Amino acid sequence: MYGLIDCNNFFVSCERAMNPSLNGRAVVVLSGNDGCVISRSNEAKALGIPMGCPAFQICNYTNPSNVVKLSARHALYGDLSRRVMSIIGTVMENLEIYSIDETFFTMPYNDVEKNHALLAELVKKIYKWTGIPVSSGFAPTHTLAKIASHIAKKDKRIIDGVYWLIRPDAIDTILRRTPIDDVWGIGRKLSQSLCGMGVYSAAQFAALPSQFVKNRFSVTTERVMRELKGEDCINVNPITIAHKSIMNSRTFGNIITDRVAVCDAVMSFADMCAKRLRDERSVASSVSVYLRGDPHRNDIPYYSNVCQLYMLTPSSSTMVIAKYALIAFNNIFREGMSYRKAGVMVSDIMPDENIQLDLFDKIEHGRQKKLMEAVDTINNKYGRKCVQMVPQTLGGDWHPQTRHTAKPSQNLRIYSDQIQSLSVIQLFQQ
DNA sequence: TCTGGGGTCCTAGGACCC
DNA sequence: TCTGGGGTCCTAGGACCC
Known about the structure:
- This protein has 15 helices and 12 strands.
- The protein is an alpha+beta fold.
- The strands form 3 sheets. Strands 5-6-1-7-8 form a 5-stranded mixed beta sheet, sandwiched between helices. Strands 9-12-10-11 form a 4-stranded antiparallel beta sheet. The chain has a 3-stranded mixed beta sheet with strand order 3-2-4.
- The termini are far apart.
- 32% of the residues are buried.
């Protein structure tokens, strides 16, 4: 049996945990540049504000003064997520952390009542220790556990935050009441096609012939169907499995036309990708850079392009990855065009002990590794951007703009500026 | 005025092989 | 008249998730 714990309205709940005066009010958390709504309190949902709603359209649903708007603070959410997951890890085994706010795990007992009691206790503990409300469910498959925890969240009669789906007759009843587009793995396009065929509920979907679903849609869709019928066939990657690609991208605060300013952003993203590779003890073989204009502006020409390069030797060094990112950037940057978004992706990722090196690579690779270890040590101690390996200006033009959150401490900024004056060579010698 | 930032998997089709 | 039957690898694009 698989269990699932899912944090309710996670980003809003994090903000409330830090600031209880937000309780009882309609609260939304906004994406970068305060663009879209990415988390809503129940009160905000009740006003009809949809997920992904552009912030400037909130007035279509209610008087904007009724809603507290907050700029996202991802560092805070990541921290609270780790705390919630570690509490779950003290009670449950085989955690499969699926996203920042939810994790699967295996239930320890065969006895349903014992599992229920254990989970209810855990839900209480998480709220008491972190302030984050969660819902949970358990069932024979991941997909059914998702449905169960969804019911725990929505059904007001459930007061301990736990719902389970085990008995076949109960599963059947619930599937009949579950709209097809509420099923995990059935998105907008698929549910449209299915509704066109007269399939409106999860139960109707589960009753379709397996081969037909496989031929008409795909093996993934057929797996979803088998999961609904109680067959365990979807693997969720445990967190220990390294990423296959790592991406960093941002929509800029404004349209940018200046080559140096866009390049500055690309260098920052390359640096962040490399740092994450090192954190995962991985290296990448390929670097892609993409640039994009503003698709919402009809008054200026739109330009979008991407360039992927393969490195001679896989690497996680900021200097190496930035070097390739710069070549890719120069390949696709066009003077006179307007840019609103850029990104860097590293892919073909493998563990760093797996790389094949020739004699000369070996020397260079060793030097790079030592250098990056020194930089990471300093940055972990004194702050993320104390030492920078690529040209980046703090607070460059490209940074997303936020209006609804406190700025980071000024003291730290001044200190970082001083530290930056140390040259890379000095550091390496140290 | 104003629309995010990540990820994964699968399929179709082309190039190439024997 | 009549034109095989497998493979593999790669890429682009689409679908899904949070």
